[in-house]
Amino acid sequence: MAMRLKQKMMVLPVVAAAFLVAIVTVTVVLGARTRSASERIGSSLAPSVSQAQTSRAGFAALHQDVGDAVALHAVQQQTLDAHVTELNKGLAALRALPDVDGAKVEALQGAFARYWQEASQVVALAARNDAGAEGALAKLEPAYRTMHDGLESVTAQQEAAQREAFTEVSSLHGTTLTWVLVLSVACILMLAVATVWLLREVTTPLARLTATATRIVREGDLSLAIDTSAQDEVGELARSIQTLMTRLGSVPGTLHSVVTELTAAAARLNAASHEQLNFLTSQSRSLTEASSTIAEIAQTSGMAASRAEMVLKVAAQADAYSSSGQLSIERSAEGLQQIRARVGALVGSIGVLSEQAVHAGEIIGSVKDLADQSNVLALNAAIEAARAGEEGRGFAVVAKEMRALSSQSLLSTQRIGKILLEINQAIRETVGIAEEDSQKMEEGIEQVLSSATTLKDITQVVQESSQAARQIVASVTQQNAGITQMTEVVTQLSEMMSDVVMATSNAEQAVGQINTSLGKLQELSTAFRV
């Protein structure tokens, strides 16, 4: 089974840890043995050797003091007793040590007791200056020799044991150093082998993969071969990069075709937005002109309303005159003298009425011209509304209402003109009759009565003219309100058109930005080699 990258990376620490554990184990085991031997030397062998040497020296000093006591006849019993006590304590301490032959030390204690027994007698003889002291000293020599040889033997034995212990410590120390050195060298060799193996299995493939990825990033060459033979994470990474390169290989072509299509679409969109901007600019100018025209129409409509008010006033005056004339004719039955006077006044009034009728005809002509202009402007407004499309639907309704009002005003004007023509004709006939029959008043009462009837008709016509004038005023007022509404609609359309022109300009700028981004995408699509 192939090792994973994590397992491969654990080889070096595992090998190092294993050898470290081995080194520590060897050091601990051999160190424990060395420490045990050292403790044995320090706690037993060295004290036993020291104690044996001390006892040997003390015994030699004691024997020398005994000899001095015989030779010099100077006995220091306290000193001898102190030496004996110290030797006994030393032999007892030596016997208590663990690495000392207790039997030998016990035999030495017995031999020392026998020696001191004989030595005490020698000292006692020397103290009495007895001549047998020297003989007794000579007899003491075998006991001394036995004790001396025993101490020498114990000392030699302990020194030999101490040397053996030191040799063992030195051997253990050398063995420890040898094992540590061997294990260290083996660890270094194993780590070197593991390092070479890791370089071959991990580092080298990663270096090759890194170099390939660097070339792909730097040169954009997607045709480079990648080693995917490894079965660990490096191999999986290499296979993933190979798959990524395969997928990236299809990206530049697709991106290039998409960029080409988007570039063509952006060019078409740019042309369309440019045409739309030109069209909207033209529409905006047309709306501006229409707004100016409608302002002029509103001004003309205001003038027409003023003139219609004047017509209404004249018609009211005519109505008042006709009413007063009718009242005069009705009262003509009371007296022909009054009729004569009133006929003269009537002639004058009819002359004034004739003049007012002429002025009313002029006003009606102006109203007719205004209605014609309103009809033409309404037709132009309907055309502009049709060109504006959906945004001009309300404007088209207003234009239709204006045309209807203009047609109604034109019909009313024609009717009033016809009535005024009849009034002028009747006035001329009345004036002729009044002038022709002014001197035959007495004979023409019947004609006056007939004139009264005609005057009634005239009064009715004047009343109808007054009513028509009121309708004209109402129509002109309604027309003025429609023109005001049309002005507001045109103003709103102009503002909306300005917003549309601004939005189209922004769209054209956005298309320019899209073209810039498409250029960058085009450069990106050509940066890779497949």
UniProtKB/TrEMBL annotation:
Chain ranges of the Methyl-accepting transducer domain: 258-494
Keyword Ribosomal protein included in the entry's annotation: no
Stretches of the chain forming a coiled coil according to its record: none
Keyword Transmembrane helix: yes
Entry protein name: Methyl-accepting chemotaxis protein
Domain HAMP: 200-253
GO CC annotation, single: membrane
Organism: Corallococcus aberystwythensis
InterPro entries: Chemotax_Me-accpt_rcpt, HAMP_dom, MCPsignal_dom
Alphabetized GO MF terms: transmembrane signaling receptor activity
One GO term (biological process): chemotaxis
Keywords: Membrane, Transducer, Transmembrane, Transmembrane helix
Family named by the database record: Belongs to the methyl-accepting chemotaxis (MCP) protein family.
Pfam families reported for this sequence: HAMP, MCPsignal
Transmembrane regions: 177-199
PANTHER family per record: LYSOZYME-LIKE PROTEIN-RELATED (PTHR32089:SF112), METHYL-ACCEPTING CHEMOTAXIS PROTEIN MCPB (PTHR32089)
